[in-house]
Amino acid sequence: MRLWTLLLTLLCCSLFSAQEAEADSNFTLTVDNQHVFAVVDVPFNVTVTIEQVNWSDKPIEIFWESNGVYVFPKDELGHNIVFTQSGPHSQTLRLEASLFGIFNLRFYKMDRNGKKTFLNIGQEVELVIKRENVQQNKIINIIFTIIIALALAFMGLALDMKVVLATLKKPIGPAIGMFCQFILMAVFSYLLGWLLLETNYERLGLLLLGCCPGGSHSNFWTAMFHGDVNLSCTMTFISTLGAFVFTSLWVYLLGTPLVGKTIPIPYPHIAISLASFTIPLLAGVAFKYKWPKKALTLSKKISRPFFLLCLITLPIIAVVTNIHFFYLCTWRHIVSGACLGFLGYIFGAGLAALFRQGKPQIIAIALETAIQNGGIAFIVLNMTFSSPYSDMGVLPILSFFFCSTGPFMFVIYAVYLVFTKLQGTVQQKTKELELDKAENSQQSISVSTISVID
After folding, report:
1. Helix (DSSP H) and strand (DSSP E) numbers for the chain
2. Are 32 and 16 in contact (CB under 8 A)?
3. Is residue 27 within 8 Å of 51, Cβ to Cβ?
4. Distances in Å between the alpha carbon of 218 and those of 80, 297, 354?
5. Distance (Å, rounded) from C-alpha 174 to C-alpha 365?
6. 24-46 in b/e burial notation, b at 16+ Cβ within 10 A?
7. Contact 193, 202 (CB under 8 A)
8. H/E element holding 125?
9. 116 DSSP β-pair partners
């Protein structure tokens, strides 16, 4: 008898809860805009309306959440909205985002046990939060250009135009670099994007990076690793010229289908990049021709420390201006960017070794293949998408620079310095031992000669 009583009680409670849930869920929730555009650190509104309600005595309580912790309420409503039969059927949420990006807003109910039931209001509300000060990027780009121009002028002091002309007459190294940069890197970036990244603007960002020519950072690192600077600069010049054709071709074939619209190619920027690379180099070459002794002194005492200063300060500035990367990046961004860089180093060095290039040439080709001119990719993204879509597309590019050319390269360079130091010490000791043996041998010969005379 007790068992039947207990079962009847549970059945009644279940029916009551089901009726209560049905009464609560018999309404429609709508928002005034499925795509909300706002600026970081500036409050914005989202109006929520309840319709077709089968009212009961109880108020209806709705909660909201965002997939980004950087979106938070700015009014007394907090994370919940309460609708009553006698109250207003539209209420406005006042929100704010502390970081730019693309986030979603979802609404749900919560039962007595704390279980969430998400409401179907069509699509999730998309929050598009853009940068507060876009002009800041232009100022930073100007500073970057001035610093890099000075560094390239110092690099021109070390160029030997006879070697450059000889390289152009027998362009085995540049041909290897062109194949690696515009064929292998483009294919790798496209495949990695589809394999690892989730949005088309992120895939486009990685593809653009893979289609770009070599950048001046590859020249700096080639000098630091004692590679062939003449070959490196020649390859950068040729690949920048080739970008007018190959970057445009890959973007048309692979980039346009990704976003479903024509992607503008910044030909003026590519031309400016070519000029900003060539003119400072030629200025350094002219200085060397006019004052060879001063050029040699500057090249030995200032060039490498200035290159190192550039390689340290420029990434720091990039980190500060793109601090959102550390909040929004995922393992997908990091792995895709790192893999693209590592594949560039491996295949660039491998093909150079396969074609029997020397050690300095292998260093130059590997670095020139892997380290791309990311500035062109940034420009194209900004021309194709507005903020924050362009900022999100930059995430795999930043991952590439942080994981493949930034801190990673400093670790490799530190290992290289230690290895070079140890190698120099071993060679010095070997020479000392050989000299000691030679002296002992000479002394033995002298003693033998004296003995024979006696």
Report:
1. 19, 10
2. no
3. yes
4. 53, 23, 21
5. 8
6. beebebebeeeebebbbeeebeb
7. yes
8. strand 125-130
9. 110
- Phi-psi bin for 42: left (phi > 0), alpha (psi -120 to 50), beta? beta
The pair of three-digit structure tokens given for residue 217, joined into one six-digit string? 């950072």
DSSP element (H, E) containing 110: strand 101-110
**Residues in a beta bridge with 107:** 64
d(CA 193, CA 265): 20
Q: Which two tokens stand for residue 195?
A: 């394999």
Strand partners, 31: 48
Residue among 136, 129, 142 at smallest CA distance from 375 = 142
Q: Which pair of tokens denotes residue 87?
A: 């109250």
- Of the candidates 270, 273, 259, the one whose C-alpha atom is nearest the C-alpha of residue 386 is 259
Per-residue pLDDT of the chain (454 residues), as tens digits, is 555 554 555 445 444 444 444 444 566 777 888 888 888 888 888 888 887 667 666 788 888 888 777 888 888 778 888 887 777 888 888 898 888 778 888 888 887 777 887 776 655 788 888 876 656 666 766 777 777 778 778 777 777 777 778 877 888 888 998 899 889 999 999 999 999 998 888 888 898 888 888 777 788 888 888 888 888 888 888 887 888 888 888 888 888 787 776 677 667 766 777 777 778 878 888 888 888 888 888 777 777 788 777 777 777 777 677 777 777 788 888 899 889 989 999 999 999 999 989 998 999 999 988 888 777 777 777 777 766 777 778 888 888 888 777 777 888 888 888 888 887 777 777 776 776 666 666 656 555 555 555 5
Give the 3-state secondary structure of residue 80.
Answer: strand
Residue 235 token pair: 């390859």
Q: What angle do CA 119, 121, 122 make, to 5 degrees?
A: 130
Q: And the tokens for 98?
A: 């502390």
Query: In terms of residues, how long is the chain?
Result: 454
Element (H, E) at 95: strand 90-97
